[in-house]
Input
Amino acid sequence: MANFAKPGGPRFSVDVYQNEYLPEGGREVNAIVTVTAKGGGTPAGPGTSAAVVLMVDCSGSMDHPPTKMRNARDATAAAIDTLRDGTHFGIVDGTHVAREVYPGGGRLAVADPTTRAQARQALRRLRAGGGTAIGTWLRLADRLLAGADVAIRHGILLTDGRNEHESAAELKDTLDACAGRFTCDARGVGTDWEVKEVTGIASALLGTADIVADPARLTEDFTRIMESTMGKEVADVALRVWTPVGTRIKFVKQVAPTVEELTDRRTEAGPRAGDYPTGSWGDESRDYHLCVEVPAAGLGQEMLAARVSLVAARPDKEVQNLGAQGLVRAVWTDDMAASTSLNSQVAHYTGQAELAQAIREGLDLRKAGDMDGATAKLGRAVQLAGVSGNADTAKLLAKVVDVVDAPTGTVRLKAKVAEADEMTLETRSTKTVRVKK
Output
């Protein structure tokens, strides 16, 4: 383990959990890399400079029922009240176009008692009407955030409907353009929105996604999001993975607190090294699964399979080495007990990733009318949730299937499932529980 203290910010550390022993001819090395930041995340203090843009869906459907729009206004006001003094912020009204609600003029306000009061007043003028083109909201947020000289740039996006006024390709182009420029949490309110759209936005922009089925709970959720955002102190942190000649990285994925595929997001960082984005950090810990293919070697030989470190882009875009580092090793042995033993961390998170995939595939099969396939996949999910101790996911699954026998994954699909329950399971399918270390 190595660690590094950023002046005035969190201290980063890296721990590697693996079984480094391979049988003769073995080539696949798996490791769980735990990254921890401690000593930061102090929302009550002055902290690091930050900018936040809140994007509020004001399409016509937000008026059905009228309480939905009122809840959205109240939630946004509560989030603004949670802003730390000195934080740059703005509000965007999102329909088939994007409009600045506050402060206007292509700029952001700076949080203090006066600007918070002005923002709350501006929120009262929000009215529902029009369509939905989420890409326009994100592009306006990007322009506003780009103009702020801050370390942390973040968006909060709320929608209640499907992105019907722009194509999927247009939204993807927008997400590609915004990736790496700011992070974004996305929320779907009610049950008329598309889960894959909302989770796709959060995934692309390294934020969180969730459902708020009851609009009355928006204030609680928005306040929690803003408190988390105010705790971020280091932006644009990346896992830098170096591997020696002859090795190949099979995949890199975040596995806690959620499953997030990072393999295809690699950017080259010099000879045999690549950076995998992780977004902004406060006082927190996350786990990553690294799988490396190494050249076959003889018994008794050992090698460094990968070196994992942490870097961050400073405001001038120069890369700052955060100092924390972990080593992944490979050792070839004829000890069968050693080489066939699966590290508990690796086994746990392999199961968690399979759990998320089984839920997604099971729900897709159910929607497609393949009830036998859906039953098999969701049964496997119930089994994996039980083995891993993921009680929250097990409870969500029990609202979609009748569990006959959890250890064997024997289930029956429920004849009637509330739409909110199915959407909640799909949205939260990637949430994981951590293994005890």
In short: Residues 344-367 form the longest helix (24 residues). Confidence is low (pLDDT under 50) at residues 1-7, 41-47.
